[in-house]
Amino acid sequence: MKTPFYYYDMALLDSTLAVLTEHAKQNDVAVHYALKANNHPRILQKIAARGMGADCVSGGEIAAALAAGVAPASIFFAGVGKRDEEILLALQSGIGAFVVESAAELFNIEQLARANGCIAPVLLRLNPEVDAHTHSHITTGLAENKFGLAPDDALALMPHLIQSDALSWRGLHFHIGSQIREAAVFEALCHKVNHLLSLFRTIGYSPEIVDLGGGLGINYAEPQSESIPNFAAYIQRFRMLIEANGARLHIEPGRSVVAQCGSLITQVLYIKEGKTKTFAIVDASMTDLVRPALYEAHHQIQLVRPDNWTIPASPVPIAMRPYDIVGPVCESSDVFERDLLMPELKRGDYLAIRSAGAYGAVMASSYNMRPLAESLFSDER
Ligand SMILES: Cc1ncc(COP(=O)(O)O)c(C=O)c1O
């Protein structure tokens, strides 16, 4: 296949899904996969076949989840800016809940539901003001972020929500950010959630669902040492710490489900000896994988042989030299890694940019009129 392309290790995806669904089942936690991480139909079909639900943030994602076979009742629709036509699609499809992020949105959903003779199921997304200690672009749970309702504002909406003929309250939702690697952050979230739950319960509002969002981080530095994230610890922590009192716990993992099974495969176009640096100019760019340019993210990069995209070409350390691995796009931020020690590189060498299965292909653009990278799946070879 023409480089650059995304390569997905479907055996690893299968094992990841098996571990995740097993721990979720043992702990009676519902899993809604966050489609925003990767929405390729091949991947969605595998996820749907495991009986998982879907966390969607657009009408397009709802349609993709339905097409892959996700049960409508297991689809939740989040996002701060839902358009009327997306709300109507969700109502007509019979989704499980709208995750509502503002009063204005709640009243709009109510009006559309009433006009169409429907009752809209609602979770209120609360902003718990817990710092995810992650990159500022992927932190969502602080008061300064655009997401969620302040707890007081949510409480003020409750009498209306409970009495409405076109709305049905199902529970509360929280999501504080992504790529969270510290257990202490999730512990802080649990304590805050318990505090907010008791506020609601004291006034007589007992949620049927407590949705804890996504956010579990993955090991970008050494993907092979942790190819499947520690779902057991992640899920058991919620089960042990959240005072559920009969409410069903939900999680919405995205990155942790699909990141490690994907690599972006690229070929070296040119080696350029600069005054102070050696550049390996590759045919992939920030248009294929924007995370390094957007979030200062680091992905492991390995020299690979074309007969197996998952195995490094040279596992035994040989003479190494530093390269800046850069793409062809006319932006200084089009850099995958700086001063990366690699074996001697030459034109035509294949590199695998690891852990690219999440927030990779879905964030691609055609800037510079570049074509979108295609996908290759290990079980299709
Ligand atoms: C509401 C919500 N749920 C779930 C996710 C998935 O997060 P992650 O991929 O970090 O698991 C996100 C990501 O931004 C989100 O905004």
Structure report:
With 381 residues, the chain is α/β, with parallel strands linked by helices. The protein has 2 domains: 249 residues, Alanine racemase (TIM Barrel); 95 residues, Beta Barrel (Lyase, Ornithine Decarboxylase, Chain A, domain 1), CATH 2.40.37.10. The protein contains 10 helices and 17 strands. Strands 1, 10, 11, 12, 13, 14, 15, 16 and 17 form a 9-stranded mixed β-sheet that branches. It has an 8-stranded parallel beta barrel with strand order 2-3-4-5-6-7-8-9, surrounded by 5 helices. Helix 5 links the parallel strand 5 and strand 6. The termini are close together. Bound molecules: pyridoxal-5'-phosphate. Pyridoxal-5'-phosphate (PLP) binds next to helix 9.
